[in-house]
Structure to design on (197 residues):
């Protein structure tokens, strides 16, 4: 149970629902509250299916491309570090002109805002390094419940914490993600060094 929660926390930090919620709310601002909830639920389900797809079929593509563990860990660490930098140096909210006028479908909410490249990468890494698929799947489901809850409550969180409060929380998660990314790169480097000896 502890390993599931620890892994779910990692996935949650990478998914970054607190950081993406203002953008998602901006994308859905023209829809009424009930429609917003339905869209968020639908997009969250697509994001969950995408995450599970990469868990169970990511290994097939990695094996097909003959990608070693150390290459995946080093590249994944670099990618997550870039995500962490984006979280630390919070980007301004998208402008009115950039907002699509039609209802979003899969892109950009399900991916890349919920299940982005960083989340897919760390899921594949854990699928490869964890011998128990049930642990990874359970962690994904726990993360999905937490992310969906945050997105459903996003309008209230914005009122309680304000944009500044959400930005501070995002920066804290960005710092944690940066540390995890560095550790991942170090572990990948150790695996690579072991192949040379």
């Amino acid at each position: 149970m502890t390993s599931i929660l620890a892994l779910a926390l990692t996935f949650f930090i990478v998914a970054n629902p607190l950081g993406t919620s203002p953008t998602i709310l901006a994308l859905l601002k023209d829809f009424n509250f009930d429609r917003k909830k339905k869209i968020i639920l639908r997009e969250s389900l697509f994001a969950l299916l995408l995450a599970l797809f990469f868990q169970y079929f990511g290994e097939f593509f990695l094996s097909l491309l003959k990608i070693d563990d150390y290459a995946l860990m080093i590249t994944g660490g670099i990618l997550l570090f870039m995500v962490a930098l984006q979280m630390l140096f919070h980007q301004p909210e998208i402008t009115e002109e950039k907002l699509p006028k039609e209802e979003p479908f899969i892109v950009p909410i399900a991916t890349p805002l919920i299940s982005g490249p960083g989340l897919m990468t760390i899921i594949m890494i854990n699928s490869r390094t964890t011998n128990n698929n049930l642990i990874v799947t359970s962690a994904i489901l726990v993360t999905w419940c937490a992310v969906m809850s945050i997105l459903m409550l996003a309008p209230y969180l914005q009122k309680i914490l304000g944009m500044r409060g959400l930005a501070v929380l995002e920066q804290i998660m960005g710092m944690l993600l940066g540390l995890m990314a560095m550790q991942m790169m170090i572990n990948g480097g150790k695996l690579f060094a072991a192949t040379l000896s």
In short: The longest helix spans residues 154-196.
